[in-house]
Amino acid sequence: MNITNIFYPKNILSLFYCLTISLKNKKAKNILIINTEYIEKNFINKYLKKIYYEFDEIYFIKYKRLSLFKYKSIFQDIKISDKNINTIKNIKLINHLIKTYKYINFYGNNDGLESYIFLKMKKNVNFHFIEHGHGNLLHFYLNRKKFKDVIKNFILKILFFINLTKGYPVKFESYYGSLANTSMKLSINGSHVKKVVYFRSLNKLFLKYFKKVKPTQKKLIWINLCDQTLKFNSFEFNKILNFINVNLNKKNETLYIKYHPNKNYNWDNHFKKLLKFLKKEKIKFIIEKKQQSSIPIEIICLFYQIKKSYSFLSTSTLINSFLIKGYKNYIFFNYTLNNSKVNQYSNLIKNFYLKNFKFNTKFI
């Protein structure tokens, strides 16, 4: 049976996960689909030209998924899901691939393409989830025992089979990423994931396939204190600034600030307060030029040999702990949890991070 691997990453890091899987499966046909809503074609052509040689085919599509962080009801969820599928069914490439290849391994991010492909292929396709952030891992971990997700899954399947919805809660056979470990029990769309595959050594791939970028100076310390999903707490934030002021070696270390890769992302009150503080205390800092701001910080830290950071809880700072040898990772954990606008954190969530991300990390 000839199986075709189709990869659909959501960000640059998940693209490298796809590349890793592709390189290990050279005998199969490997097809890469890049959604320009997630990864710009100009970025690939400027920094990652070498990947064109590692996939049999590479295609670019433009698909903007409709979604809400929180849904009022299951019916609102279904309505938005159906709208997404109506958009996907008009993407010529997806229909072409479904017609061309009889058996498919689809590596994606659960953004609607899976439901449409299942609708057309049923048992001739297997789905695999590619990690693109600590948020989705947390969700899959916390929902592994939730009865309401099982019920929701059951209701969606019934509605699908009686043609009242086009969306289907597809089952993912495996989960690939750098944050999960093989012993984790995860649940996606109400179904248990059979296999967790983790990547710990992406450094060689970054160095081989990414166009090299050089730092403007040495002894850089990454600081990531801008997060629009957090409420600004002046009193608590001042404690963070004072900690940095004491902990930083002002003579030899320079703070490195990078624009967020999302072009619609704006500096928030945390950043404005930080900037005033750095100038007042005469702490050296640089802000990365905009043309390189789209490069993921994981790759910047590798090329710039950054081995220390001050940050709110984020995917990048967690991954750097694993990727970079001797990395000193200061995460302002309590501030992140206590001031989140989008999540209500519990002890269970706290325990998840404290248990699974001890390595090279100091939670503050």
Describe the protein.
It is a single chain. With 364 residues, this protein is an alpha/beta fold. It folds into 2 domains: 4-208, Rossmann fold; 212-363, 3-Layer(aba) Sandwich (Rossmann fold), CATH 3.40.50. It is 39% helix and 18% strand. It has 14 helices and 15 strands. The protein has helices spanning 12-24, 41-47, 74-88, 92-100, 113-121, 134-142, 147-161, 203-209, 234-247, 269-280, 297-304, 315-323, 333-338, 347-356; strands at 4-7, 29-35, 57-61, 104-108, 125-130, 172-177, 187-188, 191-192, 195-198, 220-224, 254-257, 285-287, 308-311, 328-331, 361-363. A 7-stranded parallel beta sheet has the order 3-2-1-4-5-6-9, with helices on both faces. α1 (12-24) links the parallel β1 and β2 (29-35). α11 (297-304) runs parallel beside α12 (315-323). The longest helix is centred in the N-terminal third of the chain and has 15 residues, at 74-88. It is globular. The model has no long low-confidence stretch (mean pLDDT 90).
